[in-house]
Amino acid sequence: MENYTENSHYTPKVGNLILNRLLSYKEEEVPEDFGILITPENIESHLVKIRQDRENWAKNHPDEVKLVKEIKQKFDASLNEIKIISKIFN
């Protein structure tokens, strides 16, 4: 994960790119495809593109998709066990 220090925190480099994009600062350092301004006029088409990109990624990464589905199934099973135990003791 080149752009993240862990699963939910991006690197200072990415933070600087975000700030530069938002503040129109050092625009020459920000990749052209980094970030998009979402407006009422483009939100729907942007969501369509995100969904299409996600579907394409899933088609090209079946092993990762399988792994995530297995993890979710295990999580759901654990959650159900907790609910059952909670009902017993309540």
Describe this structure in words.
By secondary structure, the chain is mostly helical. The protein has helices at 12-23, 43-60, 62-89, and strands spanning 4-6, 9-10. A hairpin with a 2-residue loop joins strand 1 (4-6) and strand 2 (9-10). It is elongated.
Detail the topology: elements first, then pairings:
Layout: E1 4-6, E2 9-10, H1 12-23, H2 43-60, H3 62-89
Antiparallel strand pairs: 1-2
What is the compact description of this entry?
It contains 3 helices and 2 strands, in the order E-E-H-H-H. With 90 residues, the chain is mainly α.
Q: What percentage of amino acids are in beta strands?
A: 5-15%
Structural class: mainly alpha
Give, in order, the helices and strands.
EEHHH
Task: Work out the number of β strands.
Answer: 2
Mind telling me the C-alpha Rg? Answer: 20 Å
Q: Supply the number of helical segments.
A: 3
**Which strand order spans the largest sheet, edge to edge or round the barrel?**
1-2
The first-to-last residue Cα distance is: 43 Å
Largest sheet: 2 strands, antiparallel
Helix content: 55-70%
Please describe the structure with a list of short key phrases separated by commas or semicolons.
2 strands; 90 residues; 3 helices; 6% strand; mainly alpha; two-stranded antiparallel ribbon
